[in-house]
Every structure is written in C-alpha cells, then in structure tokens.
Amino acid sequence: MKYIKPKVANPYFEDLKVENIFLDQFMPDAPGDFVKVYLYSRYLAEAGEAMEPKELGGILGISEAGILEAWDHWEEVGAIKKRYIDGEGRLDFTVEFMNLKEQLYEEDEEGAEPPRLSSSGEDSHPKKVFGNETVKTLMGDIEKKLGRTLSVNELQGVISWVDDLGVAPEVILQGIDYCQGKGKTSFNYISAVIEGWNAQGLDTTDKVRSYIEEYDQKFVRYRRIMQSLGLSRNATEEERRIIDIWFDDMGYNMDKVLEACSTTAGISNPNIKYVNTVLTNWQSDAQKQGRDVNEKPAVTNTVLKEYYDYIREKADREAEERRREIYTKLPQIKEMDEKMRDIGIRLAKALLTKGEDNVKLSEELERLNEDRAICLVENNYDVNYTEPKYRCSNCNDTGIADMGGPCEACREVRRGEAEIWLKEREAAK
C-alpha cells in the first residue's frame, strides 16, 4: 500500500507537518488509534515510503482490521481519499491525504462540497467564499503580514468578515497594518478593530485613513495625560469621554490640562476625576472673571498655596505668643504641658514595645487634659486659648477639604485675599 501526501494548489498553503485544521477539527472526535494511523501514515507519505496495513498495524499495535477501519473513518470525514489500484479489489488501495486548508474555500476537483469540519456534523462553511480567488489571495496576504499560519478559527473569522460583514479585503489588510503599527498582533485585537470599523461604517480605505488620523491625535492626547498622572495603562472609555470634554467642550489646551494634572502630586491616588474637579473649578473662576480658561489668573494656584502657608504660619505664631503668655501667668499649665508631652512619648514607645501599660498612660493623659481645661476656665481663659486660630474650620486654612479636593467653603474668599496680599508683597519689595 502506498501513501500520497496532499496535493497543494497554492504552495503558500503547504504545511510541513499537519494542518492546524486537523488538530482543531478532525482529531478531537476521532478514536486514539485512528489518530495514530493518520499521523504515522502522514510521516510515511512525507518520507515517500509504502507500507501494508498488516505491517503498519504491527508497528502501531493495531490489528489489520483496525487499520482498515481507521481509513474508512478518515475517508468518511473527508481527510483522505482511497485510490483503488484495480477496478475489482477493495483492499489494495492508495491513501491520498487531502489538503484540509484549501477545502475551506474552494471546491474539490470533482466538484463536491468541501468536507464538514464542525464536530456537530453541520456544514459550518460560509457558502459565498468557496472557489473565490480573492479570498484565497486575502488569506495568503494575511499570513504573510502576520508571519504565521492562520488557525481554523482564524480562517473562519476572516471568512466571516468578508461573507457576513462585507468588509473589503483592502480594509482588512489596512486593519492588520494599523494593529501591527501599535504592536498588537493578536487575532482577537485585530478582529475587534476591524469589526469596530465596520460598525462605524468605515467601509473604504479613505474613510479608515481619515478616522485613524483623528483618532490617533486623541490617542496621543490620552496617553500623554495618563503618563502625567503616573499611570502606565490606557485610558478607559469613561476617562476618554471626560478628557474629550476638557478639550472639545470646555476649551482647554494641553498646557492647561497638564497644569491641572500636576495638582495631583499631593494626593495618594492621582485620577481623572480629581483633575476634572480642578478643571471645572478653574472654568467657573474664569467665567466669573470674564477671561479665557487658558489665561493665567492674577492669582495662580501657586500664589494661592503660598497665601495659605502665610496665614497658617501667622496663626501658629500667634498661638505661640498666647502660650508664652499663659505660661507666665499660669506656670502650672506649662508643667501640665510638659507632663503631657512626656506621657505622649512614653505612650508612643509603649505601643511599639509593649513595655508599659498604655491604658494607664492614656488615662493619665486624659486626666491631665481635663485638669488643664479646668485651670484655664477658672482663670477666665478659653479652653483652646493656646491653640492656633484657623479661620476655616473646614480645611484649617490648607485649602484642601477632607475628601482631598479644593475647599469650596473658603476658596474664593482666600483667592481675593491672596490678590491683595500679593500686591502688598510686590509693593514692599
């Protein structure tokens, strides 16, 4: 018995070993012995050797009847054809291995339909592409671009683009080039891009080119903003929507947006929503002052921060003056403060070393606090007389609210004060 390897109509579709189609579609449903017969005989065909069923069965540990049963199976599913040597005998035949890939998109030489590859027994091949030279050429072009052979699922995916979606071959190739340019070569990614273009009606290369030019500008914009926030990932769909609003609706330029991104340096989790809050506040300020959003205000955020630092330092200095006053008039308060500082240090050490009873230390600290408050009140002083008097209880004159955003309770008031302070500072120079 001889074995003939598959005929290849197009050399580019030739496989050195076994087609992925066989592994994916034919092999899973076949008995193990049948697979052994098929694979070993493919090896013999590549080597150009002949072997009778009995001899083959001896090598594989399968009976001669089992060998013949295997060939019946593979012929039934379309993986081989039996070529009989004479018109009478039905045992002496040559096994011709079929080229499974070419059967995906052309009729065989006798005009029969290609074999069914679906394990369900149903013909899963699209009908419009059989014998279509354009599709055959497209498959070859795709494999050349990707530098590999397409799997059966990928082949059927390409056929679906052409047959079900009506995507032009030149648009498909353009999609592959576009994805490769971005370093994305997985078939799933390419498929998502091509199907996305199709859903948007991008059915010609000119339409695709125009879309790419516009989209890539936005892509660079998204990437630059994400990098400025210290984020290495791509922007999500919602983040892209917000970013587009900054430029398209609010009228910001990139320099101003990056300035807003820089305000996240002081927070633990830089994010687009925080920047959006900053830009929204800046837009509101600009509208109130009747200026363009990209125009620098008289009081920049840097100046505003300096003013916040100034009024806090002033409050701290005044508190220190009141503390010295109390220590002079009520020495017992100074003694209590020193004891409380000492207990605070011991309590911190106790929490780390478990050397002292921190419950007793906490109770003693609480008692001293109460004695201190009573002493101040009995001498006609406010309980918090020695503490800094911050003007905004919401942010303690830091400009930052509890949730990390700008303190709206005093922001505008402080900006007005900062403008006067800035002018006085400049005049004093």
Describe this structure in words.
The protein is an all-alpha fold. It is built from 16 helices and 3 strands. The protein has helices at 20-26, 32-47, 53-60, 64-76, 133-146, 152-163, 169-181, 187-199, 205-228, 237-248, 254-262, 272-289, 301-329, 331-353, 358-378, 411-428, and strands at 3-4, 80-84, 93-97. A 3-stranded mixed sheet has the order 1-3-2, with helices on one face. Strand 2 (80-84) and strand 3 (93-97) form a beta hairpin. Helix 3 crosses helix 4 (64-76) and helix 7 (169-181) packs across helix 8. The longest helix has 29 residues, at 301-329. Mean pLDDT is 81; it is low at 10-16 and 105-130.
Task: Please outline the helices and strands.
Elements: E1 3-4, H1 20-26, H2 32-47, H3 53-60, H4 64-76, E2 80-84, E3 93-97, H5 133-146, H6 152-163, H7 169-181, H8 187-199, H9 205-228, H10 237-248, H11 254-262, H12 272-289, H13 301-329, H14 331-353, H15 358-378, H16 411-428
Parallel strand pairs: 1-3
Antiparallel strand pairs: 2-3
